[in-house]
Amino acid sequence: PEPEPEPESVTDAAATLTEHEPVAAGESSQETASTATPEQPLSSSLAPAPMTPADPRVAAWFEQLDAAEAELLKEAHAGGDQGWTPHSVKQDVAISVKPVAGRSVPMVRGKGIVRASVNQIVDMIVEVEKKSKWDHMFKQGRTVEELGGDCSVNYEEFKPVFPTSGRDFVNVTRAIRKPDGVGVLTALSIEHDDAPTRRGIVRGHVHLGGFIIAPLKEDPGVCSVTYVVSIDLGGSIPGFILNMVVAEQPLCIARLKALCKKLPRNFNPPPPPLETSGQVPEPEPEP
Question: b or e along 112-148 (b: 16 or more beta carbons within 10 Å of the residue's beta carbon)?
Fold first, then answer.
């Protein structure tokens, strides 16, 4: 699709985004009112595995995800008084940055509008094998371990940028729908025996990453999408690459927007299963 004209300034973009009001906490959109339950998984793309939070590893990961999700929601809505400053506007994505003490790469945030439902957008994101469709630096990935619902451990490798080596990450991820219909996808790095470091590739670390996908009050088929990430790329990184990371990462929203424009009009993933996030669903009773 032809690229849309960019807003004239960060202020213009912010004004454009605020014209569309996402569903507020405690309110249900038309799309989700009949299915929303407390923190249910967003899709059925990942088959449940015989694993429960009683496993000490998984229980620890879930605790970390809970804390990361709270921080993600806080940073998504934080303003200048909490360290965020406007960086640029590209492809209708308003980009902001926040310095983080002790880290060479600032926390980065992007905000944009995508004409698709929460389920449609999540369907684009949750399968790590399809990430190259909306992240042009992504090289390959796989699901290391499925934890049930839409929670999994993923391995992701990214292309090298001369003169640096490629980077890889091992992340635990979770996708849930909040009671107000907002979709939240959270990721953070962990260690996993089935995803050791590899020769010639530098292991990076995601301190915090994820998406917040909020259906608009006036049209649940359109969503406000916020992307937040704070990473450590590991090793020595030239300044021009750091600047590229800051400018490029939030543009995944623009690529998701372009992908959603190609969806057939009748495409809509099935509603999320009625289960609590992080738990293996109970088997349905036989007729």
Answer: bbbebbbbbbbbbbbbbebbeebbebbbebebbbbbb
Count the Cβ atoms, other than its own, within 10 Å of residue 286: 4
Position 244, amino acid: M
Partners of 223 in beta bridges: 114, 215
CA end-to-end span of the chain, whole Å? 49
How many whole angstroms separate alpha carbon 172 and alpha carbon 66? 12
For residues 206 and 71, the answer to whether their CB atoms sit within 8 Å is no
d(CA 36, CA 44): 15
For strands 151-158 and 166-177, give the pairing: antiparallel
This prediction's pTM: 0.78
The DSSP bridge pattern shows strands 201-203 and 166-177 to be parallel
Question: pLDDT by residue (tens digit) across 132-166?
Answer: 999 989 999 999 999 987 899 999 999 998 888 99
- Provide DSSP, 152-190: EEEEEEE---TTSPEEEEEEEEEEEE-TTS-EEEEEEE-
Beta-carbon neighbour count of residue 173 at 10 Å?
A: 25
Evaluate whether 47 touches 231 at the Cβ level (below 8 Å).
no
Q: What average pLDDT does the segment 101-116 reach?
A: 93
HSE of 48 in the Cβ direction (CA atoms, 13 Å)?
16
